[in-house]
Design goal:
With 363 residues, this protein is an alpha/beta fold. It has seven helices and 19 strands. The strands form four sheets. Strands 6, 7, 8, 11, 17, 18 and 19 form a seven-stranded mixed sheet that branches. Strands 1, 2, 3, 4 and 5 form a five-stranded antiparallel sheet that branches. Helix 3 packs parallel to helix 4 and helix 4 crosses helix 5. It is elongated, with a radius of gyration of 24 Å.
Length: 363
């Protein structure tokens, strides 16, 4: 017999107090969980087990259990592993591949699943990307982290009761994914990694943003991964917004200026985004000089020729879906990875690609 004597509401890791009574001794934790009516594959005991025995011979076990956390590789463990040597580098020409890693929102649970499904999807996209890169043989890779790498707990959608990772676990998962991607890309060519602040990764108290734009969990994760990557001497450099109050940045790629923003600064649709870009000129913001701007936030792909030499892209998401938007607006976005190419002549429009993953929305 088991009795649940306490239930908290702080998400999937919340402990539950359990009392189990049995005439037979329960030796292992798995035995105790089964006696409580729970599968040991799904739950774990998090505290010392208190055991008493009554006069009639019945044992009473008291403990606290919680949902078993998903086993995630930590950044520290991964950084101690031997890094694979680089492949033969391309020479004789200049070709940069630009990759927009957008809106992973790790920890989020949606119609496409939870963290386990998200990590599997991200790995599938990485393998598709690596096949493309081996074929295209770039001399430089620009990995643009468009932001929202973690779901957080105080952004829109009130995710506190639906996330399947705590905030520390989200940071750990995000770091592990980023570290793996950077190490794999660095085998093919030198890599430049860029990150900008975003709304889900912001430091918040409820709906209020705290600190300044650089107080961002995404930027924090990148700095930790940067230290681990640099310890291995890999050909990777990081670019961050200039100063604590900038939310955008630009990078010169073979003479083409690539700009990066998350997108939460603007309303939906290309028109609002282009208007925002135009207004950067008067304030002499970084994007004023950009030839190509990449953003995310809205989870779906669009591309726009802004002028004869300027283009703007909204990168698709890799997340688990936005069910509240689907139910409210009747639309759903497909996971995707935006890949561009830039050479000495500028943006190669013939090599604009959106890698896709086979997916069917669960009923």
């Amino acid at each position: 017999m088991s009795t649940l004597t306490e239930q908290t509401t702080q998400g999937f890791t919340a402990p539950v107090a359990v009392t189990v009574e049995s005439y037979e001794p329960l030796v292992t934790d798995d035995d105790k969980l089964r006696a409580a009516g729970h599968n040991p594959k799904d739950f774990e005991i998090e505290t010392h087990v208190s055991v008493t025995r009554k006069a009639d011979g019945k044992y009473t076990y008291k403990f606290r259990m919680r949902t078993r956390g998903i086993s995630l590789p930590t950044l520290m463990a991964m950084s101690k592993e031997r890094v694979k040597p680089p492949l033969k580098q391309a020479t004789g020409y200049k070709r940069a591949v630009v990759i927009a890693l957008a809106d992973l929102q790790l920890g989020k649970v949606g119609g496409r699943g939870g963290t386990e499904e998200a990590l599997a999807r991200i790995e599938r996209f990485l393998q598709k990307l690596l096949k493309r890169l081996r074929r295209r043989k770039p001399t430089l890779i620009l990995l643009l982290d468009v932001g929202d790498g973690l779901e957080g707990f105080e952004a829109g959608g009130n995710p506190m009761g639906t996330n399947d990772l705590s905030l520390p676990q989200q940071l750990d998962a995000y770091a592990a994914v980023l570290y793996r991607w950077v190490c794999e890309l660095a085998r093919i060519s030198p890599v430049i990694v860029a990150i900008v602040p975003s709304n889900h990764a912001a430091w918040r108290n409820g709906k209020q943003t705290l600190g300044n734009p650089s107080d961002d969990f995404g930027i924090h994760v990148h700095r930790q991964v940067q230290r681990a990557v640099e310890a291995h001497g890999l050909p990777v450099t990081w670019v961050y917004p200039d100063g604590d109050y900038e939310e955008t940045l630009t990078i010169d790629v073979y003479g083409t200026i690539v700009g990066l923003m998350h997108g939460h600064q603007v309303g939906p649709g290309p028109t609002a985004a282009v208007d925002f870009w135009q207004k950067q000129t008067f304030g002499e913001q970084p994007l004023a000089a950009a030839d190509v701007v990449v953003m995310g936030h809205y989870h779906h792909f669009w591309a726009l020729d802004v002028s004869e030499r300027r283009s703007m892209f909204c990168a698709p998401t890799l997340d688990n879906g936005s069910d509240w938007f689907r139910l409210k607006g009747g639309r759903e976005t497909k996971p995707g990875l935006l890949v561009l190419e830039i050479d000495e002549n500028g943006l190669n429009e013939e090599e604009i690609a959106v890698l896709r993953d086979d997916f069917t929305l669960a009923a």
